[in-house]
């Protein structure tokens, strides 16, 4: 399994997803699931830690799983990981706690929660997210908003753990033996790239060499770890440092789509809202404050409803609406009706798909169980390596 091709995203349940969440986040995740190995982690344990008054953690988690399935996650193409169903994540969280300082956890938690006073539960959540990222050996992480600091914490833990425990007797001779297993041509390229990085600090050479090692299916995990560590001379690379997935548009070879502002009206509308609910939400969204009457000329640049049109109304219809608004020939009520109809058209297939899953709970639970088994198998090599490094394997 090629971990260099592995992407991880983390979502915490507890509230219904909005159309803004879909446009801002889910839409980007889904475009990668057929090109990369994607894991979508549903943080039910995080919800339990962050909100000890929540009375419906399991239902919230199942609702988030249904949301993801309705939005387009395909179980055969991506893996949905429900944290509480994969006990290996909690064990890694505990084992990593010895390699992380309190100040690291508090800093990550402060950034994630945007406050100074941090509880132990909030700090634990940051470590649990790092355990998911490192346990699944993510090469890249979909990091936005609260997960950015967890990504940085993961990188810190990986470096610290490798420094403390990545020692091995006869490391260099074992690494040289592993180079020979690459074959003459690939081994020579590895040495050239290693030299370019060690002698000249060539970061591109380092990244190319890492990718080269991770592509080798004939190497054992131990040999891969040796060769990755040998690049920087730090010893065995037990844990891999993940990178941030910055440009989501690459999946479709498109120009980057501007991200939604936090105050975008799409965040006010539930992703799975019924048409009448969408209409009710849109009718409350303010329009151009300078437009007192339906026949007054409007300015879409000052209208919150126009921001909805910009995202989902088709170009020809959008141009017509803009012209009519500026000419005063289209009232705000009709403008809202049109965008409500368009949003209902776009999101109705998701709502109907969600209803089918909601009516078949056993199917959803079966998908979760299958994904948990797959996740445990994928995490097991990392957990075994960590246990071995800590002298806890008892073999």
What does this protein look like?
The protein has helices at residues 19-30, 44-50, 57-71, 87-96, 102-113, 120-135, 148-165, 171-181, 184-200, 203-214, 221-232, 275-283, 304-312, 315-327, 332-358, 361-389; strands at 6-11, 37-42, 78-82, 140-141, 243-244. It is mainly alpha-helical. It has three domains: 3-166 and 361-389, Rossmann fold; 171-232, no CATH class; 268-358, Tyrosyl-Transfer RNA Synthetase, CATH 1.10.240. The chain has a five-stranded parallel sheet. Strand 1 (6-11), helix 1 (19-30) and strand 2 form a beta-alpha-beta unit. Helix 3 packs across helix 15 (332-358) and helix 5 packs across helix 6. The longest helix has 29 residues, at 361-389. It is elongated, with a radius of gyration of 25 Å.
Rg value: 25 Å
> What proportion of the residues form beta strands (DSSP E)?
5-15%
Q: What is the fold named in CATH at topology level of the largest domain?
A: Rossmann fold
Count the E strands: 5
Total number of domains: 3
Overall average pLDDT? 89
> What is the highest CATH level, the class of the largest domain?
Alpha Beta
The CATH architecture of the largest domain: 3-Layer(aba) Sandwich
Strand order of the largest sheet: 3-2-1-4-5
Number of helices: 16
Q: Termini distance?
A: 25 Å
One letter per element, helices H and strands E, the order comes to EHEHHEHHHEHHHHHEHHHHH
Q: Low-confidence parts, pLDDT < 50 over ≥5 residues? A: none
Superfamily (CATH H level) name of the largest domain: HUPs
- Percent of residues in helical segments? 55-70%
Largest beta-sheet characterization: 5 strands, parallel
């Amino acid at each position: 399994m090629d971990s260099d091709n592995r992407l991880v995203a983390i979502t915490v349940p507890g509230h219904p997803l909005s159309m803004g969440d879909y446009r801002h986040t889910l839409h980007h995740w889904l475009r990668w699931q057929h090109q990369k190995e994607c894991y979508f982690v549903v943080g039910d344990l995080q919800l339990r830690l962050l909100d000890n008054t929540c009375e419906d953690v399991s239902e919230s988690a199942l609702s988030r799983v249904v949301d993801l399935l309705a939005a387009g996650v395909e179980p055969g193409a991506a893996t949905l990981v429900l944290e509480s169903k994969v006990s290996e994540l909690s064990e890694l969280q505990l084992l990593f706690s010895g390699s992380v300082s309190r100040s690291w956890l508090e800093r990550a938690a402060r950034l994630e929660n945007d406050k100074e006073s941090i509880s132990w539960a909030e700090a634990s959540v940051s470590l649990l997210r790092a355990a998911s990222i490192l346990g699944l050996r993510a090469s890249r992480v979909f990091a936005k908003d609260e997960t950015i600091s967890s990504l940085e914490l993961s990188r810190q833990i990986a470096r610290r753990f490798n420094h403390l425990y990545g020692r091995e007797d006869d490391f260099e001779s074992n690494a040289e033996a592993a180079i020979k297993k690459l074959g003459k041509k690939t081994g020579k390229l590895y040495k050239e790239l290693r030299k370019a990085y060690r002698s000249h600090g060539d970061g591109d050479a380092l990244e190319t060499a890492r990718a080269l090692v991770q592509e080798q299916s004939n190497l054992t995990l131990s040999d891969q770890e040796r060769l990755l560590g040998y690049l920087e001379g730090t010893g065995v690379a037990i844990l891999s440092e993940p990178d941030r997935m910055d440009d989501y548009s690459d999946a479709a070879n498109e120009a980057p789509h501007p991200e939604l502002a936090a105050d975008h009206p799409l965040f006010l509308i539930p992703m799975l809202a019924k048409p009448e609910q969408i209409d009710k939400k849109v009718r409350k969204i303010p329009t151009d404050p300078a437009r007192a009457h339906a026949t007054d000329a409007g300015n879409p640049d000052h209208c919150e409803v126009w921001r909805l049109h910009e995202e989902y109304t088709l170009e020809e219809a959008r141009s017509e609406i803009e012209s009519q608004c500026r000419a005063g020939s289209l009232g705000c009520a009709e403008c809202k009706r049109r965008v409500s109809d368009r949003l209902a058209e776009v999101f109705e297939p998701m709502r109907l798909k969600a209803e089918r899953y909601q009516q078949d709970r056993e199917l959803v639970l079966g998908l979760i169980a299958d994904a948990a088994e797959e996740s445990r198998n994928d995490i097991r090599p990392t957990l075994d390596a960590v246990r071995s490094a800590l002298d806890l394997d008892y073999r």
